[in-house]
Design goal:
Structural class: alpha/beta
Distance between the termini: 15 Å
Low-confidence stretches: none
Largest sheet: 6 strands, mixed
Strand content: 15-25%
Helix content: 25-40%
Number of strands: 14
Length: about 300
């Protein structure tokens, strides 16, 4: 019988660890605000030592996310798209931390066909292949992962062909936390008429986003928009512009389905925006996507053990 192994999604802000058995079943999990961004090398090793005390007999360890970046435990080169699960697993990087064998999952890099621009991701690739393993993602089509840095991924034949990243979430958070636009925001962003109006304005591209962003303040000052609706309009504006970028790179006919993966509240906003732009959305519960991805990688890796 195979033994349990450990998987870690180690991002800039958070540390999420999973204990998974040899059949891919999630047995235990925990999360802490112990991201790579807050730890030096000694701190990273100490974090692993604490985790191993919880699950002393499990091995090996797999890890994805910023742990493989230039500020992580060991920098791991991105694997190039197009790529499938076999290619991702073939690029695992073996290292040791706190005396334990750890396989770092490489992030993905692509150069998009339409605009020739490069893009990168770390961590989302494990979620994508996990959801595919669980039968919750299409093998072909467009998948969006809304969040702080949203990803739009073109899949074909079960492989990641290329992708686009948009900073809409971070821009919204920063603009509503400080600066001129923060002063006119009085309520959270929600779906509704103001959000839909902003979505259409962003998608129409009648003016550049920089001009339209200041326009939100002008609309409030001139009473074309209430302070209670300002955040909703602003969020819609950013998401609408993001969807327009995605449609430019990956032409989508009216009625095309986009699969959304992420937290329910933000996916609901994206679903509303897509509907207003004549696209359909299917929301997939990410759930244990990372754990499923690690289980697929471990299986493809031959159930490696130290």
């Amino acid at each position: 019988m195979g033994r349990d192994f450990i998987a870690i999604n180690w991002g800039s802000s958070n540390f999420r660890a999973y204990l998974i058995d040899h059949t891919g079943v999630l047995r235990d999990a925990f999360a802490e605000p112990a991201g790579i961004g807050s730890l030096d090398r000694d701190g990273m090793a100490a974090q692993i030592e604490r985790m191993v005390q919880r699950w002393p007999d499990a091995q090996p360890i797999y890890a994805c996310g910023m742990v493989g970046s230039n500020v992580g435990w060991e920098e791991v080169a991105y694997a190039e798209c197009p790529i499938g699960l076999d290619g991702l697993t073939a690029n695992l990087h073996a290292t040791h931390i706190a005396g334990r064998l750890m396989y770092i999952v490489p992030g993905l890099a692509c150069r998009r066909e339409r605009d020739g621009a490069p893009d990168i991701m770390r961590g989302e690739e494990t979620e994508l292949f996990g959801l595919m393993r669980a039968g919750r993602l299409p093998r072909d089509g467009i998948v969006a992962l809304p969040g702080t840095h949203s990803k739009w991924v073109r899949m074909a034949g079960g492989r990641v062909m290329e992708f686009m990243t948009a900073m809409s979430g971070e821009i919204f958070d920063r603009l509503t936390a400080a600066g001129m636009l923060a002063s006119i925001v009085a309520a959270p962003a929600v779906a509704g008429a103001a959000f839909t109006s902003g979505t259409r304005a962003g998608a129409d591209r009648a003016l550049g986003l920089g001009t339209q962003l200041f326009g939100v303040r002008a609309k409030v000052i001139r009473k074309d928009l209430t302070r209670e609706d300002a955040a909703s309009y602003l969020r819609g504006l950013l998401i609408g512009a993001e969807i327009a970028d995605a449609r430019m790179l990956y032409p989508m006919d009216d009625g095309q389905v986009v699969t959304l993966v992420g937290a329910a509240p933000v996916c609901a906003l994206y679903a509303e925006a897509l509907a207003g732009l004549n696209l359909r959305a299917v929301v997939v519960d990410a759930g244990d996507a990372s754990a499923q991805g690690f289980a697929a990688i471990h299986s493809e890796n031959g159930g490696a053990s130290a």
